[in-house]
Design goal:
Radius of gyration: 15 Å
Strand content: 15-25%
CATH class: Alpha Beta
Strand order of the largest sheet: 1-5-4-6-8-7
Largest sheet: 6 strands, mixed
CATH superfamily: Collagenase (Catalytic Domain)
Number of helices: 3
CATH topology: Collagenase (Catalytic Domain)
Helix content: 10-25%
Distance between the termini: 11 Å
Structural class: alpha/beta
Number of domains: 1
Number of strands: 8
Order of helices and strands: EEEEHEEEEHH
């Protein structure tokens, strides 16, 4: 991994209290697929089409966790990421009240034609994306602000967990591996990327 990468911050909105994703219902975003195991995580079967990408924060309440997530991925993986608040970029974090859904956050990556890699309603994979001819080219991470769904103390884990989905990482198969791809039913959820996570990403990218 290059030691010359530096995260770039553009704009003034880098603070905020990310109320993470959720809840024990969160990531069923892509949590109901069946994929092969890669390291500590399962493989969703698609990859992003570049290792140099920009991330935008279009939220009101999640800024701190989003900026620290971008810095974590930028500094500890072979990905080069720039945070550009309130701008439409390759990867966008956003939030809204989507009602009493079975998730508190969902990640929808899209191929170069704009077709989603997963369904917004339940996170199930669509087959529109893969690791070769239909790589993900953009994506949006949606936080659901429906009241009372998710403990805000897990915001840093949630922002990293959803970003992992953007790059094709699925859930770990048990609570034993120390990975941000654990699901909320696990007792301990890492607030930063672990070696298991970076090993998978650097092996793929």
């Amino acid at each position: 991994m290059s030691t010359t990468k530096r995260i770039r911050y553009t704009g003034s909105h880098l603070a905020g209290a990310l109320s993470s994703v959720g809840v024990f219902m969160v990531f069923f975003i892509l949590g109901s697929f069946s994929g092969k195991v890669e390291g500590a995580t399962t493989d969703l079967g698609y990859r992003f089409n570049t290792t140099n990408m920009s991330v935008s924060d279009c939220t009101s309440n999640y800024g701190s966790a989003i900026s620290s997530t971008v810095m974590d991925y930028n500094n500890n993986t072979d990905l080069t990421m720039s945070l550009i608040p309130f701008s439409c970029t390759l990867i966008t974090y956003t939030e809204g009240n989507y009602g009493n859904t079975p998730w508190h956050a969902v990640t929808i990556a899209r191929n170069s034609s704009g077709s989603p890699c997963a369904n917004f309603s339940d996170g199930s994979l669509t087959g529109n994306c893969n690791t070769t001819t239909q790589k993900a080219a953009s994506g949006t991470i949606y936080f659901n602000d429906y009241p009372g769904v998710f403990p805000s103390t897990q915001k840093n884990w949630a922002a990293r967990h959803e970003m992992g989905h953007m790059f094709g990482m699925g859930h770990v198969t048990s609570c034993t591996p120390n990975s941000v791809m654990k699901t909320p039913d696990c007792a301990s959820l890492p607030s930063t990327l672990t070696s298991s996570d970076t090993n998978v990403i650097n092996g793929w990218y």
